[in-house]
Automatic annotation (TrEMBL):
Residues 16-119, 121-166 form the MUN domain. GO terms for biological process: dense core granule exocytosis; positive regulation of exocytosis; synaptic vesicle exocytosis. InterPro entries: CAPS, MUN_dom. It comes from the Eukaryota. It comes from Acanthochromis polyacanthus. One of its GO terms (cellular component) is presynapse. Signal peptide: none annotated. This is MUN domain-containing protein. Pfam families: MUN (PF06292).
Length: 216
């Protein structure tokens, strides 16, 4: 009888030890998962900051064409004299094309090198949201200025391609059509209509309304 009590007691102790070990292992796993999540969050923020810096550089270059600047005045006179030759239109499109290529290349890199789908989706979501916010702020700072044709054409192309590319990457409509995008869309549409009235020829096929019909 005594032997039975000792045996039961030993089993109880063994069970308690296993339970404690299991709890300790679970706690360590939780801490490890939290640490991994924090690392992923920091990497996500770091990536988005770097992507934002590239867009800021693009917007900074577009600022040179602000209404009233010497560069804008000289360029407008030249464009008017040469009837909007394709040679003068190209620099603005080069800027847009270079940025779009940068975005697509880095989207592909993320898809190829990162196996965590949730992390990738988070980066794309934050990247898109930050990009639209940056463009929206840039336009808001120029609320009282009419955009130069270079600025308008470049922004239309960047915004439309960005919208479409991130939609293809799985960013949801609720994120795509955020307030910043709506503000940008309305502003660029108004600017486009103004150019169409003043210049007659408009933007030579570039429009906010036909993004799905344009070539890549």
């Amino acid at each position: 009888m005594v032997f039975f009590k000792i045996s039961v007691s030993q089993h109880v102790c063994t069970f308690c030890e296993k339970l404690k070990a299991k709890k300790s292992f679970t706690h360590k796993n939780v801490l490890k998962e939290r640490k991994n999540e924090n690392i992923k969050l920091l990497l996500c923020l770091s990536s988005c900051v770097q992507f934002a810096a590239v867009l800021d550089c693009v917007l900074s270059k577009l600022s040179r064409y602000d209404e009233g600047t010497l560069f804008s005045s000289i360029l407008s006179f030249t464009v008017s004299s040469l009837s909007l030759s394709s040679a003068l239109q190209k620099p603005g499109m080069d800027l847009a094309d270079t940025y779009i290529t940068f975005v697509r290349q880095n989207q592909d890199i993320l898809r190829d090198r990162v196996n965590d789908e949730l992390y990738t989706e988070k980066v794309f979501e934050q990247w898109y949201t930050g990009s639209m916010k940056a463009v929206c702020v840039w336009l808001t700072d120029r609320l009282d200025l009419q955009l130069h044709m270079y600025q308008l054409k470049t922004l239309i192309k960047i915004v439309k391609k960005t919208y479409r590319d991130f939609r293809l990457q799985g960013v949801l409509d609720g994120t795509l059509n955020n307030k910043s995008y709506e503000t940008i869309y309305n502003r660029l549409t108004v600017e486009e209509a103004t150019v169409a009235v003043k210049a007659g020829g408009g933007l030579q096929g570039i429009s906010m309304r036909d993004s799905d019909e344009e070539d890549d």
